[in-house]
Design a protein that fits this description.
Layout lengths: L2 E9 L10 E10 L2 E10 L8 H7 L3 H4 L5 H12 L3 E4 L2 H14 L9 E3 H8 L7 H8 L11 H15 L7 E7 L2 E6 L2 E6 L11 H12 L5 H8 L1
Parallel strand pairs: 1-4, 4-5
Antiparallel strand pairs: 1-2, 2-3, 6-7, 7-8
C-alpha cells in the first residue's frame, strides 16, 4: 500500500527564521494514488500579529485566529495523521522549512518523510511552462474557481488533482497484469481481483451466412489482422 499526503500551509510571511509562523495546515490522504476521503485541517494561533501583506493572501485575521489552538496543541495530531506517508507539496522547501521550524521551536523531531515537490515534478513534465498551481489547473482543466484566496485545505484538494494528472492522470490507480496464461490480475486501489478464462469457451453466435460475409470482406483487404483471429477461431 502506497500512502501519500498532499499538504499545504498558510503562514504569516515568508521567513520562519525571522519569526513568521504557520496559521493553517491542510492535508489530503491518497492511498495508491486514490483519495480516501480522509483529511487533516487546522487553523493555528501564530502567537504574533498578522502582517497586512499576508492577510491579503489568505484572509486570516488576528481576530479569527485568536481563539485557535497553538501549534504545540496540534502537533501530535498532525504527526499522527501524516505518519510515514510521502508528502506531496507544491514548492516543498517553503512548507517543510516552516514545519521544521515549528518542530524545532518545540524541541520535537523534524520531519523525515519522503517528499515529492510538485513544482519540480511539473518542470520535468512541462519544461519551460509556467508551473504555478493556477497555471497547472488551467493546463489540466481543473476547476479552481473557488480559489479567490489561498486556503490550505482547498489548495491541498486542488493540488491532489494536479498531482494525479502530473503522474499520468486518474488511471494510475488501475493496474493490469497478466499473471499466467488465461489469468488476468486487476488491481484497483490496492485490492487485487483475478479474472480467469473460461475452461470451455462460449459457442459462437455467428451463423454460416455471417461467417461467409466476413470471409468475403477479408478477401478484399491486404494482409488483414482479423484474418489471424478468423483462422484461429
Amino acid at each position: 500500500m502506497k500512502r501519500e499526503i498532499v499538504l499545504d500551509t498558510e503562514t504569516t510571511g515568508l521567513n520562519p527564521l525571522a519569526g513568521d509562523r504557520i496559521v493553517e495546515i491542510g492535508c489530503i490522504e491518497l492511498v495508491n494514488h486514490i483519495p480516501t476521503g480522509r483529511h487533516f485541517h487546522r487553523y493555528i494561533n501564530p502567537e504574533r500579529s498578522m502582517p497586512e501583506d499576508a492577510f491579503k493572501v489568505h484572509g486570516l485575521s488576528d481576530n479569527f485566529l485568536s481563539d485557535k489552538p497553538k501549534y504545540a496543541e496540534i502537533i501530535a495530531d498532525f504527526v499522527d495523521f501524516i505518519g510515514d506517508g510521502t508528502l506531496i507539496i507544491h514548492n516543498a522547501a517553503f512548507d517543510i522549512g516552516f514545519l521544521n521550524a515549528e518542530h524545532t521551536r518545540l524541541s520535537h523531531p523534524v520531519l523525515s518523510n519522503e517528499v515529492i515537490d510538485t513544482v519540480m515534478l511539473a518542470r520535468q513534465v512541462h519544461p519551460g511552462a509556467r508551473v504555478s498551481l493556477d497555471a497547472l489547473c488551467k493546463h489540466y482543466g481543473i476547476d479552481n474557481s473557488k480559489r479567490t484566496l489561498h486556503g490550505a485545505l482547498l489548495d491541498s484538494e486542488i493540488l491532489a488533482d494536479v498531482y494525479l494528472e502530473l503522474i499520468g492522470g486518474r488511471q494510475v490507480g488501475l493496474a493490469l497484469t497478466t499473471a499466467s496464461a488465461g489469468v488476468m490480475e486487476v488491481e484497483v486501489g490496492g485490492i487485487k481481483l483475478v479474472a480467469r478464462q473460461r475452461p470451455v469457451p462460449l459457442p459462437s453466435r455467428l451463423d454460416a451466412a455471417t461467417r461467409e460475409a466476413h470471409a468475403a470482406l477479408l478477401a478484399t483487404l491486404k494482409e488483414p489482422l482479423w484474418a489471424y483471429y478468423a483462422e484461429s477461431a
